[in-house]
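Comment thread on ticket #2218

A.B. wrote:
> Attaching the input chain for the structure job we discussed in standup.
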Amino acid sequence: MTTTAPVADARALGLAHYAARGVLEHVLARHGITFQQQIVLRAAISADAPQAPDDLVTQVRGSLKADPADIRAALDELLAKRLLVADGAHLRPTDAGRELLAVIGAETAPVTARIWGGIPAEDLAAAGRVLSLVAGRANAELAALTT
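C.D. wrote:
> Ran it. Output below, let me know if you need it in another format.
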């Protein structure tokens, strides 16, 4: 008996996203950090130089499409937890912030390997092309709605 693979669509994409995010949020909760805080912290850590708060909010908003007020709240929570610190007009991650992301990365690495492991490279390449196309089209639609 041959089974037909499901066709990729918005529902399948959403289900995959939320399943993977659920795994990550389980790990994040053990460390007292939210998904949005983790995204803000990762953006600050991966920046080439310390960023102004507005620049960090803009960058994260481009990724998450979240309300800037919610992103600012996450940023303020990271400052309160001393995972980010103000350095003049800029923010920089603390050693504790860097260490936290390293620990989270180490904890999620084996799970990520189990989730993604064994998927043929050509399937991953095709999925990457499709997801990139969908993201580009969705970003264009969102831009048209907000202008």
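A.B. wrote:
> Thanks. Noting for the ticket: DSSP finds six helices and two strands in the chain.
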